[in-house]
Amino acid sequence: MKTEDDIIQLIKNDEWMMKILKAAQALNLPDCWVCAGFIRTKVWDTLQGNKLRSKLADIDVVYFDPDNILEEKEKEYEQILHTLIPEEPWSVKNQARMHVINGEEPYTSTIDAVSRFPETATSIAVKHSDGNDADIILASPWGVDDLLTMHIRATPSFIQKKELSNIYNERIHRKKWKDNWPMVEVHSLNPSR
C-alpha cells in the first residue's frame, strides 16, 4: 500500500467499512464524513499484517452545521446510527462547535476541523461520493505519508501552540499505539520549545 488510491481501494473492498459509510450517509448531514481511527486502524492493521480487525474505541462521524450546534442534536444522530447498526460505538460531532471546545477560531468546514486533529495519521476522513454509493472520497489535509509509513506526528496546529504539546504527548502515551501496531514510530513533542 503506497498511495491514497490504495487506501480508497482498501476501504471499498471492506464490506463492513462500506456499511458504516452507508449508515453515516443515511443521516443526510451537511459536509458529513467518517474519520480518524476508522481509517487509520484499517490501514495499520493491513500494514502490520493483523488478521483480525482491531477494536475501535469509537466510530467518528463528523459534520458541519453552523445552524444547529446543540450537542443534544449530535446525540439524536448517534441514536439513529445505533438503531441502524446497534453493535457499533458511534460518536457524532458537529465540527461547527468543536472550535469552542478546542479553544480555536471557528472552523470553516469539516475538513478544516479534521486538519486540526492532533496527529497527521489521524487527520483523515472518508465519505461516499455525492449520489454514488459505490464511490468514495478520501480527504487527507496533511497527506497520507505518515499514515502509510506508520508514523505518529503532531499536526501543525499542535506544533505551533506550545500549550498543546502536553495534550499531544499525553494522548500518544494514553493511546498505546505500539502495543497494537509494533511497527508504529511515535514522535513526541518537546514541551520546552
Task: Give an overview in words.
The chain has 193 residues and is α/β, with parallel strands linked by helices. It has one domain (4-186). Helix content is 45%, strand content 16%. It is built from ten helices and seven strands. It has helices at 4-12, 15-26, 37-48, 71-84, 95-102, 110-114, 145-148, 156-160, 162-175, 177-180, and strands at residues 33-35, 59-63, 90-94, 125-129, 132-139, 151-152, 185-186. The strands form two sheets. A five-stranded mixed β-sheet has the order 3-2-1-4-5. The termini are far apart. The model has no long low-confidence stretch (mean pLDDT 93).
Features of the shown structure:
alpha/beta; single chain; five-stranded mixed sheet; 193 residues
Tally of separate domains: 1
Morphology: globular
Strand pairing plus helix content: what structural class? alpha/beta
Query: What Rg, in angstroms, do the CA atoms define?
Result: 16 Å
Spell out the helices and strands N to C: HHEHEHEHHEEHEHHHE
Number of helices: 10
Strand order of the largest sheet: 3-2-1-4-5
Unreliable runs: none
What's the layout of helices and strands?
Layout: H1 4-12, H2 15-26, E1 33-35, H3 37-48, E2 59-63, H4 71-84, E3 90-94, H5 95-102, H6 110-114, E4 125-129, E5 132-139, H7 145-148, E6 151-152, H8 156-160, H9 162-175, H10 177-180, E7 185-186
